[in-house]
Amino acid sequence: MARIDSFDGDRFDAYVAAPADGGAAPGIVVIQEIRGVNEDIRGICDRLARQGHLAIAPDMLWRQERNAVFDPDTPAGWDKAMALHEGFDEDKAVRDIASAVDWLRAQPGCSGKVGVIGYCLGGKLAFLSAARAGADAAVAYYGIGIEHVLDAIGDGFAPTLLHVAALDRFVPAEAQAALAEQARRTPALTTHIYPGAHHAFARSEGVHFHADASATAQRRTEQFLQTHLRDGGRP
Question: Which residues belong to the active site?
Answer without folding.
Answer: 168, 199
